[in-house]
Design goal:
This protein is α/β, with parallel strands linked by helices. It folds into two domains: 206 residues, NAD(P)-binding Rossmann-like Domain (Rossmann fold), CATH 3.40.50.720; 158 residues, Orthogonal Bundle (N-(1-d-carboxylethyl)-l-norvaline Dehydrogenase, domain 2). The chain is built from 16 helices and ten strands. The strands form two sheets. The chain has an eight-stranded mixed beta sheet with strand order 3-2-1-4-5-8-9-10, sandwiched between helices. It has a two-stranded antiparallel sheet with strand order 6-7. Bound molecules: nicotinamide-adenine-dinucleotide and SN-glycerol-3-phosphate. The site of nicotinamide-adenine-dinucleotide has 23 residues, from helix 2. Its EC number is 1.1.1.8.
């Protein structure tokens, strides 16, 4: 009898879910903090949250992962915020994921394919994933959403979480909302909602993975356009017009790619709310403003390195990827704003073209959207 009792904690512990966060940038660190505050409270999760750190040496000569574990702070990507003592930084990717059955992917999108390849065949059989990554990949055979890459490479199901989520504001515990997109299994979606939801981070779920993910991805292109308007000091009406045209293109593009995308998704946090916050206060907007102020004479790469100090822009690369899709599918004329953003980013057009081309071509392409 006594042996049965002594086994109980073992079985209890085996049934608990373990979470790994793959990524430790600005949002990655905040996501780990949110999750870690919940795993301490929720009995169905192990307390510890393992956070994979893309290792780097700080100016002090110390390794970033070691400093995070000593100070409980990501001094480079989220300075001044304690992550929670149960967040463990791990520079070894395979080791970070090996014991976890709930994998949270949150790195800049350009690194995701390589990361998936590295952990292929090295994760738990019962693992499930969620992607917080805003972006997509474009291959010869067309665009692939990051959640699809995760599912295909790792052979596991993948939800997405997107929303009006400027990480530094969530780190301060200011109220915000987010949307989980799921494919079929509402139960799994609710488990993710449970893991992220807090009194200041209100999460809901919708059955529309592609819609939610495309909102998060495409709003970064519109944010670049909004930044150009700010840099040119064209005022709020112009910026609102660009945001409206951008939202229209986001919806049309998403629905052309996936007929399953739902109109209502654009009214969730991942849609219009994320578009607003990113066009007001995001990094894409900020760098695009500087680009326009310099008349396009300084490249985005240069501005990103100088202004973001290691953090990564997603909008410029996404504009290029969207442009490739538009070219391949013969849709260029229907998406003047998306097309113009890319042309400005590669300095084929001046920043002022954002209004001229978007507005002019918009008149002519309206019917096809
Ligand atoms: N920061 C935000 O406010 C925010 C909010 C919501 C969603 N997102 C999205 O979350 C994703 C991650 O953004 P973030 O803000 O956490 O990151 P970040 O831009 O702050 O930091 C860049 C990260 O990339 C890592 N990195 C650099 N080179 C790498 C490589 N070769 N391989 C792997 N990793 C490398 C760095 O170590 C760092 O962790 C992006 O898709 C972003 O759009 C960001
Ligand atoms: O700072 P940005 O432009 O990468 O945007 C951050 C978030 O995506 C806003 O939800």
């Amino acid at each position: 009898m006594s042996s049965v009792f002594s086994m109980a904690p073992f079985f209890e512990s085996e049934n608990k879910s373990r979470v790994a966060v793959i990524g430790s940038g600005n949002w990655g660190s905040v996501a780990a903090k949110l999750i870690a505050s919940n795993t301490l409270k929720l009995p169905s999760f192990h307390d510890e949250v393992r956070m994979w750190v893309f290792e780097e040496t700080l100016p002090s000569g110390k390794k970033l992962s070691a400093v995070i574990n000593q100070t409980n702070e990501n001094v480079k990507y989220l300075p001044g915020i304690k992550l929670g003592k149960n967040v463990v930084a791990d520079p070894d990717l395979e080791h970070a994921v090996t014991d976890s059955n709930m994998l949270v992917f949150v790195t800049p999108h350009q690194f995701m394919e390589g990361i998936c390849k590295r952990i292929q065949g090295k994760i738990r059989k019962d693992a499930q994933a969620i992607s917080l990554v805003k972006g997509m990949e474009v291959k010869r055979d067309g665009p692939s959403m990051i959640s699809t890459i995760i599912s295909q490479k790792l052979g596991i199901s993948c939800c997405v979480l997107m929303g009006a989520n400027i990480a530094n504001e969530i780190a301060q515990e200011n109220f915000s909302e987010a949307t989980v997109g799921y494919r079929e299994n509402k139960e799994i979606a609710e488990k993710w909602v449970h893991l992220f939801n807090t009194p200041f981070f209100s999460v809901s779920s919708v059955q529309d993975v592609e819609g939610v993910e495309l909102c998060g991805t495409l709003k970064n292109v519109v944010a670049i356009a909004a930044g150009f308007v700010d840099g040119l000091e064209m005022g709020n009406n112009t910026k609102a017009a660009i945001m409206r045209i951008g939202l229209r293109e986001m919806k049309a593009f998403s629905k052309l790619l996936f007929s399953s995308v739902k109109d209502n998704t654009f009214f969730e946090s991942c849609g219009v709310a994320d578009l607003i916050t990113t066009c007001l206060g995001g990094r894409n907007r900020k760098c695009a403003e500087a680009f326009a102020k310099h008349g396009g004479k300084r490249s985005f790469d240069e501005l990103e390195a100088e202004m973001l100090q290691g953090q990564k822009l997603q909008g410029v690369l996404t504009a290029k990827e969207v442009h490739e899709v538009l070219c391949h599918r013969g849709w260029l004329e229907s998406f003047p704003l998306f097309a113009t953003v890319h042309e400005i980013c590669i300095r084929r057009l001046p920043p002022a073209a954002i209004v001229k081309y978007s507005e002019h071509t918009h008149q002519h392409s309206r019917a096809s959207l």
